[in-house]
Design goal:
By secondary structure, the chain is of the alpha/beta class. The protein has two domains: about 15-85, Orthogonal Bundle (Chemotaxis Receptor Methyltransferase Cher, domain 1), CATH 1.10.155.10; about 95-280, Rossmann fold (3-Layer(aba) Sandwich), CATH 3.40.50.150. The chain has ten helices and ten strands. The longest helix is centred in the first third of the chain and has 15 residues, at about 45-55. It starts with about 20 loop residues before the first helix and ends with a strand. About 35% of the residues are buried. GO terms for molecular function: protein-glutamate O-methyltransferase activity.
């Protein structure tokens, strides 16, 4: 009896490759929507992150998916794509010297006054909660302080609002701080931690695109703008830094990532330590 022929899928979505003439379409779209410039070396990363959406929608080319999310296309799918493209790895108390400086220098100067801090690219919220832990320990849980976190990714903000994270994200949380502000998961939540509800209630997470006009949020004593402007071209970087610096109180701090610099950026800031700048007036 002759063997039945193997059934072969009409199209193997796992083999979809982005063509070189398709990449510039996404490059222009991402830069216009987010300010992020994707170098050609990022083509493999881009196609890998979007491949799951092609499979989910039954689309057989990146050109067809681009038409789905471009202007006039599906807004919800476009947001999903932006979430996938812009998501970056983060963890609690990343670049810990910034939190040391906040605790040792800025908090004593603001003690007794309402204090507001903005985590301007908070991803899934770990930086915002790290700031909240620092303020709670340095000023007290009942002191008048507030942390705002923002990100362009609605999916990441949803993770942050839940406050549930894998334990491997917590390696840099000091043990006593971890004990005060987090609950260790058990049973189905083994290997995870939950940020304490009292701390979560002091943190507001908002959807904000830094390259668009900023909403009215009041003035801040410190803004952490870390590991984001490195992805912008020079004009976009200047525009974003100036807009963010305008939200600072006189004497307020703007903190950028250790791989970033504000040299050549025209704004009313003076460097007081590497990657930490103070608003002059």
């Amino acid at each position: 009896m002759e063997a039945a022929p193997a059934l072969i899928p009409a199209y193997d979505f796992g083999l979809v490759q982005m063509a070189e003439d398709e990449f510039p379409l996404y490059q222009a779209l991402v830069e216009r929507l987010t300010g992020i410039h994707l170098a050609p070396i990022k083509m493999a990363m881009l196609s890998g992150r979007l491949a799951k959406r092609l499979r989910a929608r039954g689309i057989v080319s990146y050109a067809d998916y681009y038409r789905l999310i471009a202007d006039g296309g599906e807004q919800e799918e476009r947001q999903l794509a932006i979430d996938l493209i812009t998501t970056n790895e983060t963890y609690f108390f990343r670049e810990p010297k910034h939190f040391d400086a906040l605790r040792e220098q800025l908090l004593p100067a603001c003690r007794g006054q309402p204090m507001r801090v903005w985590s301007a690219a908070c991803a899934s919220g770990e930086e915002a909660y790290s700031l909240a832990m620092t303020l709670a320990d340095g000023l007290g849980g009942n002191a008048p302080w507030e942390v705002i976190g923002s990100d362009i990714s609605s999916r990441m903000l949803a993770v942050g609002r839940r406050g549930l994270y894998p334990m491997e994200r917590a390696h840099h949380i000091p043990p006593d701080c971890l004990k005060r502000h987090c609950l260790r998961g058990t049973g189905d939540y083994m290997g995870q931690l939950l940020v304490d509800k009292a701390l979560r209630q002091r943190v507001r997470l908002l959807p904000i695109n830094l390259i668009e006009p900023l909403p009215e949020m009041g003035r801040f004593d410190a803004v952490f703008l870390r590991n984001v402007i490195i992805y912008f071209d020079s004009p976009t970087k200047r525009r974003v830094v100036n807009a963010v610096a305008a939200t600072l109180k006189p004497g307020g701090w703007l903190v950028v990532g250790h791989s970033e610099s504000l040299i050549g950026t025209p704004c009313e800031l003076e460097m007081i330590a590497p990657t930490i700048y103070r608003k002059i007036r």
